[in-house]
Amino acid sequence: MSRLLIALLCLLPLSAHVQSQAAGFPQLSRLTDNGFLISAEARLLGDATGPGEVLGRIEPDRQLSPASVTKIYLSAAALERWGPQHRFTTRLVTTGNVDGEGILQGDLILEGGGDPGLVSEDLWRLAQQLRQRGIRGINGQLVVSQWRFGPMACITTDRCETRERSTNTYSALLSSAGVNHGHWCMSVMPAAQAGAPARVASCDTVEPLTRVTNQVTTVASGATELSAERTTDALGDTMVLRGQIVLGASPRELYRASSDPALQTAQVLGALLSQAGIEVADGHVTTTERPSTSARELASLAGRPLQELLLATMNYSNNYMADVLSLNMVAEPQGSLLQAGEALERYVAGLPGHGPVALQSGSGLTTGNRTSATGVNALLEHVYHRAALFPSLSASMQAPINGPMRFTRRGSERFQNGVMIKTGTLNQPISVRAIGGYFRTDSGQWGVFSALVNGTSQTPYLTWGEVLDPLAADLDEMIRGH
To answer: From CA 12, how far away is CA 3, in angstroms rounded?
Structure first.
């Protein structure tokens, strides 16, 4: 009898501990019944008088995969490193001379500046700068230099597979001289009559720069259904397009990752130079060699400010942009993603109250990234108190009510309008649904919250509705109650 009484008394603190850990998250905590692992915390932000009140916790120090919530770390570190107005510069340089006929006698070298937002329009502007200098031809090669980083060794299954074929854009390969986020884009348009093959054009240069296998048919009625796959062989990339498009439908754009982003840049720039009336005599190549110190600048373009790059990186969870940004933090040329992760870890080491972290990339596409709800919230609070940086970070997040990720438009109006969030998703090797961000209470107080939900090999597939619906209900109560 005494042993039974002791056993019952021992259970009481454990039960109280479990209840306290789930306090504030009564709905979200039910996912643990199905075997999901959770690390969650919501708290008000502190001030000079002391720390803020904790509103809810579930195992806040548990180390779990944050998936693309990692991009909050990348964004904060980038803002701390460069400031919101930093711009990455892409240059055209040469060691040759322009003769009296406007012909550059020598190679034209594009020096990649690590701009994650470089697009075709930027290359067009560089071509126009050459025209303004009176250059009418290149008696040499077009050389694309990715000396800062690229081509990268792949450390995820998705990116390794992208070298041979791609059915997505999220696993684009990386280069300091990449363009258009490492994607090919094809515009598919219906033919003039039903039964005919659809028309296909490049989104960037009109005439496609890759081979195209067009298996899209124009139909008189029904639904437009399209798919795309990029394959690669010894002759280069091929875009394989399948499906149907309805007669009279608007053009549809299909994107797929290229097999070599630096080579893609060379192809796009070469085509744009030709359209500008500047012919390159000897074709194009890529290199990892740095341009000679004697090379002089013929044209340059400063990209968009960092705060605008982060808006695109975070809102659309762009893995290419995030990892290119993180690679720019590596001091040595030809750095790796793991070195970029180490640079982020060094930044985190200086954050008060953060705790352990493991970051193998800035995008979160790597499955080895680990942090906790305590850590994410420590990061968010640190940036909140950095008055020059907080507006840029919070603006890069999305309010569910009007953000581009429609799956977040759940929960009450209070939740929809009262939070700014970044989400993270992985499906392999386990299901991950993660979210972190800021909230405002009904009384106007600022708070931070994060919830990392990870499956195991034994748990079922996890949908966003299963996470966001209970989390939104819990946060609504916190926002309303304070």
So the answer is: 15
The residue type of 386 is R
Tens digit of each residue's pLDDT (9 = 90 or more) over 86-143: 999 999 999 999 999 999 999 999 999 999 999 999 999 999 999 999 999 999 999 9
Task: Write out pLDDT tens, residues 168-227.
Answer: 999 999 999 999 999 999 999 999 999 999 999 999 999 999 999 999 999 999 999 999
- The number of beta carbons lying within 10 Å of the beta carbon of residue 441 is 17
Q: Which residue's structure tokens are 């598919």?
A: 188
Write out the two tokens for 136: 């009418």
Give the Cα separation of 482 and 473 in Å (integer): 15
* 425: amino acid identity, one letter: T
Half-sphere exposure of 368 (CA within 13 A, CB side): 11
Q: Are 178 and 264 in contact (CB under 8 A)?
A: yes
